[in-house]
User: Which sequence fits this backbone?
């Protein structure tokens, strides 16, 4: 098996930009839906926007191996010790919260380590890999 190549900062930033656009689209759709309904409670609005901002990344990462941005760029988030498996939801939520708290600072470490892990990847014991490599590792 060949030495894996890990996505660099540029691919990860492209995924972040795509996901930002996706989140804006989700917000517009939710806003349009709520504006067409009568008497939408504040609680429903809060839950919808919390779902968009808090759960989009962890749900996509744990169930699909990455967000829409990750998938379009061809990268996936996997367990560091088992790159064929997605990370668990609880780990994905923890990873996202660390990423959100540290912001862009978390990505500075991507260029300085062999597996190109961001700080949130170190803490969650996750790696970002190219989708093609997963297929290569899984085929005999």
Assistant:
């Amino acid at each position: 098996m060949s030495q894996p190549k890990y996505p660099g900062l540029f691919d990860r930033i492209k995924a972040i930009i795509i996901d930002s656009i996706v989140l804006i689209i989700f917000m517009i759709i939710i806003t349009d839906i709520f504006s067409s309904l009568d008497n939408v409670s504040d609680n429903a609005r809060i839950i919808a926007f919390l779902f968009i901002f808090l759960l989009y990344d962890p749900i996509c990462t744990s169930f699909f191996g990455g967000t829409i941005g990750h998938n379009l760029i061809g990268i996936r988030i996997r367990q560091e010790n088992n790159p064929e498996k997605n990370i668990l939801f609880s780990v994905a939520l923890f990873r996202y919260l660390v990423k959100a708290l540290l912001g862009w600072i978390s990505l500075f470490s991507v260029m300085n380590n062999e597996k190109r892990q961001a700080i949130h990847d170190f803490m969650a014991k996750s790696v970002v890999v190219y989708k093609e490599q997963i297929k290569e590792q899984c085929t005999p």
